[in-house]
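pls design
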């Protein structure tokens, strides 16, 4: 699978990445053997970028991912995790986690973007994964913690990067405005942008993507299906958009885009995966993959050829913004 380099770092990512939130029992239980099989299938398909976080299943995702990768050549893959939420004993457990993961709540999350919190979080992640290093570390959802994240956490990560302990550093969020600040004002190399550069939302063209180009930095795109509305060939009422029921007007627009995709011999989800690569700063699209079937489908969608003329047609019809750049996608289909 073709790889792209995070600018000005030694880290290269396969164009498709494995998002491990779902193997942390996001929304429903994923059996351990199914999670392990998903990682195995990803490896066999050529994926070499794996992303996790302490938040995902209160450490379950990190433990499962580390176990599945253990024994594989460490220099052949890139592992990212995140800091900002320490896992600490829960003095008042209710039985099940309250933040969307079907796991026991013996632990709870504690916000901490201090230097000490960053170092403790990385050490705990290494213990849970059982691996020797993290290649990328992101600040995780620092929306309400800009000052501490920018003034304490990011300098601590930069020090580790400059010592060669970490290959690249950045931040991951569901908004784009603050991510642009991280690119412009801090030592971040890369940002994980969730849902803000998709077929239905190109708001990152106003901030994150120009900042990345201006400063020679990179973007990993996640949430490209916008919580599900772009995940099926023909979207319908009742599908989710940004974790809520999709408004009828967005369902209609998604359906209109789907019809254009069909005329070009492709599909809405294939175009949703290909779309972020219209911008040269995007180096990877990472998708959540719960089992081998989901893995196989996503890999097949990624490998479909999406004609560049599709973007021209969508622009002409006002279905995507007119300032979406035109970038040849030949490299996307490379297996080099």
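designed seq:
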């Amino acid at each position: 699978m073709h790889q792209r380099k995070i600018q000005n770092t030694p880290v290269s990512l396969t164009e498709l990445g494995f998002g491990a939130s779902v193997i942390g029992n996001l929304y429903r239980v994923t059996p351990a053997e199914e999670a392990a099989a998903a990682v195995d299938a990803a490896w066999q398909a050529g994926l070499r970028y794996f992303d996790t976080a302490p938040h995902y299943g209160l450490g379950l995702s990190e433990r499962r991912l580390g176990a599945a990768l253990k024994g594989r050549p460490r220099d052949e893959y890139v592992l990212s995790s995140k800091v900002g939420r320490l896992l600490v004993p829960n003095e008042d457990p209710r039985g099940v986690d309250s933040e969307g993961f079907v796991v026991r709540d013996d632990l709870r999350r504690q916000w901490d973007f201090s230097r000490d919190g960053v170092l403790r979080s990385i050490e705990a992640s290494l213990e849970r994964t059982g691996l020797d290093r993290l290649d990328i570390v992101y600040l995780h959802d620092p929306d309400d913690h800009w000052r501490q994240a920018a003034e304490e956490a990011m300098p601590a990560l930069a020090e580790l990067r400059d010592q060669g302990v970490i290959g690249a550093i950045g931040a991951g969020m569901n908004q784009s405005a603050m991510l642009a600040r991280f690119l412009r004002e801090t030592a971040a190399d890369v940002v994980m942008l969730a849902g803000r550069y998709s077929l239905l939302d190109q708001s990152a063209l106003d901030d994150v993507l120009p900042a990345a180009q201006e400063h020679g930095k990179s973007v990993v795109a996640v949430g490209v299906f916008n919580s599900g509305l772009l995940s099926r060939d023909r979207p319908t009422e009742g599908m989710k958009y940004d974790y809520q029921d999709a408004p009828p007007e967005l369902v209609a627009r998604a359906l209109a885009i789907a019809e254009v995709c069909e005329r070009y011999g492709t599909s809405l989800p294939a175009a949703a995966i290909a779309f972020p690569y219209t911008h040269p700063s995007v180096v990877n699209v990472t998708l959540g993959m719960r089992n081998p079937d989901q893995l196989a489908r996503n890999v097949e969608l990624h490998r479909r050829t999406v004609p560049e003329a599709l973007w021209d047609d969508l622009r002409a019809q006002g279905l995507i913004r007119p300032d979406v750049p035109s970038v040849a996608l030949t490299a996307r289909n490379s297996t080099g």
